[in-house]
Here is the input.
Amino acid sequence: MNQTYAVAAVTAVVLATVLIGALGLRISRTTSDFYVASRTVRPGLNAAAISGEYLSAASFLGIAGLVLVQGPAMLWYPVGYTAGYLVLLVLVAAPLRRSGAYTLSDFAEARLESPQARRLASLFVVGIGWLYLLPQLQGAGLTLEILTGAPDWVGGLLVALVVTGTVAAGGMRSITFVQAFQYWLKLTALLVPALFLLAAWYGDGAPRARFDAPAVLRGYTVVRVADTVRIGLDAPLTVTVTGRVDSVPYADRTVTLTSGTHHVLGGTTLSFAPGAPLPERAVTGSDPLGWSQPLAGGRDGHQLYATYGLILATFLGTMGLPHVAVRFYTSPHGRAARRTTLVVLGLVGAFYLLPPLYGALGRIYAPELALTGSADAAVLVLPDRILGGLLGDLLGALLAGGAFAAFLSTASGLTMSVAGVLTQDVLPSRGVRHFRLATLLATAVPLGVGVVASKVPVADAVGLAFAVSASSFCPLLVLGIWWRRLTPPGAMAGLLLGGGSALVAVMATRAGLAPGGWPHTLMAWPAVWSVPLGFLSMVLVSLATPRRVPPGTPAILARLHLPEEFTGTVPAQEARR
Amino acid sequence: MSEHHPPRRPRRETVTYASAHGGAAAPGTAGRRPVHPPARSEIDEQTTLGHTYVRSLMRSQLRAALTALGALALLVGSLPLLLALPAPEALVWAALGVGVYPVVWAIAHWYVRRAERNERDFTGLVEH
Here is the structure.
């Protein structure tokens, strides 16, 4: 891949982000502008901004990588990311806007009239935000490393700097423009190359991708295995090896590996003849496979259970992601919040038609990425692989720019919401200056963690954020909006038991503490049991503490559900003065 | 605590405070609309009858939401079971790669129209 074009594209995206952010800075005059863009963002612009913010690197790069390695079952990820917005729309969107609260902590306090519940919610907002920021920064590092060979901390630092700068300078108004721009950039960056790649694929005789059998290498292929892997062979395979296989050193020797499992040391080069079947990577529990993490090793019931775990986490987790929730306050009223969400569903759905195409093309033209564990790079390398030449370089650069837009937009949204909570609940005063300090804190912590723990598996952090959000904020929002008898102790018990158990289960799986078989599957995909646990504990503890029902509950529920002509859109009117 | 905030941060005091303390909607509301139909002032003044009106709106909105979720569960949530049957790979691609999105959008579109109609009906009921 041509480094010059890629670097130019990434630079252009970064510059455009800073410029549009600066434009927002000139418009962003009042404090209200700064935090919530004065709640006057039109549905079209706001929807593009929400979509731009939501489509992270996991969507832009990760889905294609997952499909390449594991086939169409992985399409549940984009489906879940989209359907999450439908659940958000029908249960939460308009009441959340009408609550007038800015962060999820504000919602908790407004609904429950309890500072403790607010503090606990803040803890979860910051935790989930950091969990989600970490992979954005690490993914940026990985992408820049693939594109330019720069050390892996450079990309993360670059994203952190740009995001801190734009968010701290312009606040919500400026990132609304930035993110709306980045949605269209990301869509273009995937759509244009996809058209060229499909034309080339058609011209090539439209070969079919096979997912039910090992992928077949189309040409003479040299694979350099970066990290040590175990490979499984169904039949004996002849390869040329330089390096160590099963602890035996080879120097450019042609050997026939027997069927079964083999251990390939990191740094080994394997050369395959055309038409050779690609060995499958044998998965071990602690393998950091990037976003290309399989749905819990097993098949049969495990596979079905894991799919439902994924569905529950993504369908119900979207509403509790801090950067998603914060966006609803920028709508002028509840009806606009609903219509905005409808447009978001269209925009996000249209985007998600594209990544699976890259996954399928990757399976045909670059299946060896699965073996080297760099399947996340499939989107970036395909133009060079299929088209080559100047066109391949240019399209590759466009995709690199799009990937960076993905890191930047999601990271800005998360930074904005985490910084908002830090300003309100951690730092002493509440002026704009402290918000800027909080912004720094919001990006510095995950950046620091990313540098120290460079091998934290990226996929887990994203999946974990969804599972924790589905088990904590989903019950809080749904019961808070629709149930009169919710009490502060109930809400806090639900947050702790639901969100806490999801967090502990996945962390324990990661640390290798889960025994094999069903316990492993249950703990790796906790949403199926942790979401009901969150709801159940919230309901039961609330029923056990009936005298703690906040006295203002009828008034706040009326405000959440009545159209604005009854309650008045106070915040928006005040901002206009 | 919110009333101590400097006035340049309007959002929390308006929302969380006024509503949480039974403040009949916003203080300015009464001044802006001096004459209310009876049902409307019941709502503004948080009477039992007012709560009954709010409950009826919540019930109709919840019914719309649950209908939409039911459609989602039936049409999308059942897919893992269907696709667990020996299905041709092309079907999986068509269902998950393309088909799901228009279905989700159509459910959302139905819900938005329904929820707005519920609100219009409610306004009509209260104002006349």
